[in-house]
């Protein structure tokens, strides 16, 4: 008897983005949130970025929109455990507001970010050109379809299931994934189509536009280091590969729904001394440039597993 296929759902993201208000211990407001399950020793970094973004957004009640975040990952975070986010109100002006968010777990700071919000005002408009000649996602295999008959490296049944359907979003690579091998040429460029497995659910304390922005902060961290891995000829299942997010910056240019395919174009900028830097641009289904990402991560080849 064959088992039923797992239900593909985006509810893992909305669960991660659901915060509980608590009494602050250090700053002005505080929330707790739970990191989501994954088959690695420590929690996914996008959990922290999205949860901090939600905490910051819930502290700005006057309608200003988040336009930038700058984050540092200070310590590994336990999976399936609460993180306490303390929000410090640094400034509230007519045009801009600024927040600092610190994440705490087991009594220690694990994450910190600065977030800036803007009311918006008239000004000129410019957007980078939407990339041409990228294959449509319908022409590309899903992660589940790609991995169905493949095995190798350090991949386990748990990591196969996670890559296939445990990340809330369908992800389709151009030129090909890096799960087991570098599928495609060793180039510093790649693109990933992303779309939630099903309609995003409401998140308490957020408008739909804020929830969609949080979704971008959540999903962007899964693949942003991949162009660095690609150009170095490394895959996620490479024995001994250890990676970790070090710092992360994100700018939000325009609002846009995340209920359809979003194109995430990426480029490796540097790799040296066990670190790599990559940049990414996120485009909505209407070709609107929604956001820009830059991240530095640790890349280590040793005897251990992925962090």
Notes on the structure:
- With 307 residues, the chain is of the alpha+beta class.
- Helices cover 17% and strands 36% of the residues.
- It is built from 6 helices and 12 strands.
- It has helices spanning 11-16, 45-57, 143-147, 157-165, 208-219, 226-232; strands spanning 20-22, 29-34, 65-73, 82-92, 96-105, 108-118, 169-174, 189-196, 241-252, 262-272, 275-283, 289-301.
- Strands 1-2-4-5-6-3-9-12-11-10-8-7 form a 12-stranded antiparallel β-sheet.
- A hairpin with a 6-residue loop joins β1 (20-22) and β2 (29-34).
- The radius of gyration is 19 Å and the shape is globular.
- The model has no long low-confidence stretch (mean pLDDT 94).
Short description:
By secondary structure, the protein is of the alpha+beta class.
What percent of residues adopt helix (DSSP H or I)? 10-25%
Global shape? globular
Secondary-structure element sequence? HEEHEEEEHHEEHHEEEE
Per DSSP, the total helix count is 6
